[in-house]
User: What shape does this take?
Amino acid sequence: MRVLVLGVGVLGSYLAHSLLKAGNDVTVLARGKRYEQLSDDGLAIKHYFQKKTTVDRINVISELKKDDIYDLIFVVMKYNQLPSALLTIANNLSENIILIGNNANPKRTEADIQKLSKSKKKIGFGFQTSAGIREDSGQVISIHGKGNITFGDSNGDLSLEETVKKAFGTHYKVTIEKDIEAWLLTHYVFILPMNSLLYINDFNAKKISKSNVSLNKMVEATNEGLEVLKENGVDIIPRSLGKLISDYKKLYFLLMKIYFKLPMNKFVSGGFDEIVALYNDFKKLKNNANINIYNWDNLEKEALNKHQKSK
Ligand SMILES: NC(=O)c1ccc[n+]([C@@H]2O[C@H](COP(=O)([O-])OP(=O)(O)OC[C@H]3O[C@@H](n4cnc5c(N)ncnc54)[C@H](OP(=O)(O)O)[C@@H]3O)[C@@H](O)[C@H]2O)c1
Assistant: This one.
């Protein structure tokens, strides 16, 4: 299959590697320094758990022409960066577009692309279970298991399902989610308090693991965020996560305490701009819900104040 990965950072690099491994004809689109690194040195990934490094020679482009057609285009970037890529996606005549990563409003993203596009597109959303950092050299340290994306189509029409599954082959798990919008909203409500706490504490996860007060605030904030979603008629998906917070708060607290102790937490990307964009989109849901979310508001305020001062 002819596949393009647009955005070759931490997640896009591992995604491109996985698609290559599955036998696809993969091209990556990168800009600036990243374009130079990939053209000169290839796609270098240190696989953290697997204790191995791979370097793939890969087709690299810096511009997408209108008639450069791919069977699938994966767009893998931070939520705040998406607007910068919408025209590129819309102007190209490829039909199948999959957006990977956090997204607070998949319906709006889809509508924006369709509105700008000259041709009708099939648009799906997904989330890849991996993490990591990109070193100055361009090498990505990727933390991943066997390889897995949760994928769905915002209209609940899973017409892209077969194409996506075919592209990944058998080495990589594609989990189909019927209500990907609810899944993505639930996900970002979980990560906002977590990432805010990390940011406030200069990404010192060990320090957080030792502070029961901070961890408690984070758990309460997450619970409040989920209440906002529910007030807006959004299902909490996966349901097990919702249950974990509503019925087993203490267990979630303990899991987070252990999670922040894990050595892999030193490989957490340091940016906060995406979180700011996600908080901005949460405002509307918050106003609609009109409930008291004291812990959420305090955590948000502290993190955004710090971010403002850093500018
Ligand atoms: N990193 C993690 O550990 C992790 C874990 C879980 C989830 N996620 C989520 O996964 C998503 C992707 O994150 P990431 O960490 O892979 O981001 P990233 O490392 O910052 O990579 C994004 C890439 O997209 C490129 N890009 C942005 N706008 C572009 C444009 N208009 N044209 C061409 N390239 C463009 C960036 O270029 P430059 O190199 O020039 O900036 C960068 O290489 C996010 O939603 C993130 O929250 C990340």
